[in-house]
Amino acid sequence: MNIEDVLKLVRPNILGLEAYSTARDDCGSNQPEIFLDANENPYNNGINRYPDPHQKALKAKVAEIKGISADSLFIGNGSDEAIDLVYRVFCVPGASNAVSIAPSYGMYEVAAAMNDIEFRKVQLRPDFSMDTEAMLSSADSKTRLMFICSPNNPTGNSFPVEQIEDILERFGGVVVLDEAYIDFSVRPSLTSLVKRYPNLIVLQTLSKAWGMAGLRIGLAIADPAVIALMSKVKYPYNINVLAQKMALMKLDEAAKDKAVAEIVGQRFRLEKELAKCPEVKGIYSSDANFLLVRFENPDEVYERLLAGGVIVRNRSKVSGCEGCLRITVGTPVENGRLLRLLSSSVAEPVEATTPGMEILGERHIRIVRNTKETKIALELDLDFIGGSGHISTGLPFFDHMLDQIPNHGGVALSINVKGDLQVDEHHTIEDVGIVFGEAINAALGSKLGMARYGFVLPMDDCDAAVLMDFGGRIDFKWNAEFKREKVGGVPTEMFSHFFQSVCAGAKCNLHIWAEGVNEHHKAEAIFKAFARALRMAVAKTPFPYELPSSKGIL
Prior knowledge:
Strand 15, helix 13 and strand 16 form a beta-alpha-beta unit. This protein has 554 residues and is α/β, with parallel strands linked by helices. Strands 1-7-6-5-4-2-3 form a seven-stranded mixed sheet, with helices on one face. A five-stranded mixed sheet has the order 12-13-14-16-15. It is built from 16 helices and 22 strands. It is globular. The N and C termini lie far apart (74 Å). About 3% of the residues have low confidence. Helix content is 33%, strand content 21%.
């Protein structure tokens, strides 16, 4: 099929439609300095002007990342806008029809209903593979669209490129390939096929791997002639000013790749741990950021999770997904809570001797501690690979310092605090140190296979060294002088008090030394050095797997 054949599928009124244009579209190369054309408020507050209706800057950046030309890219208010537009461009209400795999993303059917288009579902096989012949035989002369989601939602599996190409070759309409989850898959995107198949529209999104669900940025990649039609039909200002600016700021490939690696790693962890749960009857392999899991009693499990503060998607009433819950891969802390609610088979290497302590797994601890001064919920996983955390104490600079621990220590750490900051910072900082230290001590358990010492030397423009020994004896030494009373609103005297509290809670030797000029850097160097030392001190040595003491006991 060539582009001329594709254009014959377009609704005649759309082909003849004259798109809405603005005065600024007619300026050409002229760049006006005063804007009196759109009846806007002239006083600048950052959002007083209409957004660029063509999203030129954002489109150029996305096109560069995707390795495509900007004229083959449509940016919509989420992928849902693109789905709606392909119906409006190609389907005649009350006459055309669309075909889709099933089960799949529900908006294909919703958008069809809104546009008065017959929607035909072709059930996937029991193993969720696609029946190509059934898809093609479901189409007739009035079929304009065929929807294939790969990796598919909610099943999580991808379909072979050979199967997609076979349909593109044989189907006389437009194939809409939804790749919302492609960044989590080992399979490559099929956007490269757009040049060969003008009847292919590939949908992608910034909502999943890129972490911008709140901005609602969806992408459609297709032949420039198809993109021009979609752009002609869309409303003029579909992506607001703030969404365009924020998306440009957040288009960081390194950050996205790191997040994807963490999520995929956690997906494997969930799959492994869920398999131990006696209520689980099956786990479907996934190329996405979720798992479809079959339970013996899905409704009961769903309600139990909800009562425990965890919401998943109940897909048990969907044809082909009977008994299944779709579970999104969360942070290590979130996944730990899910597993705790689901399974009683998680190993408990130590006893929860501290009030409010829960054992979530080997070297994985949660502590909830409420006093008259503070309410603290802390979760620590020493064996998480890569470092992950969410810190909220009510003290932004203290949060920034604590962030160094998961980032440089390679552990998962979540801390949420409500403290009496109306009094001062003392109780919050002190109690976080105590609870964090207790969590370290509990997570270490028997200390088998653990390296005993850790230290770090120069960092940034300051020198910092941290020595620690989790042998069970408490000794704290501090040699770091701060010339300012506060850094980032936090009293500098509280840095030593925090680490002294950690030392007491962890029952360890902790010696800290630092010097330098910049007080911010000095504090940050200490926290980074502590994190690096912790990483070394709690590392499990593969050989020998024994206590780190000549006495044979700690």
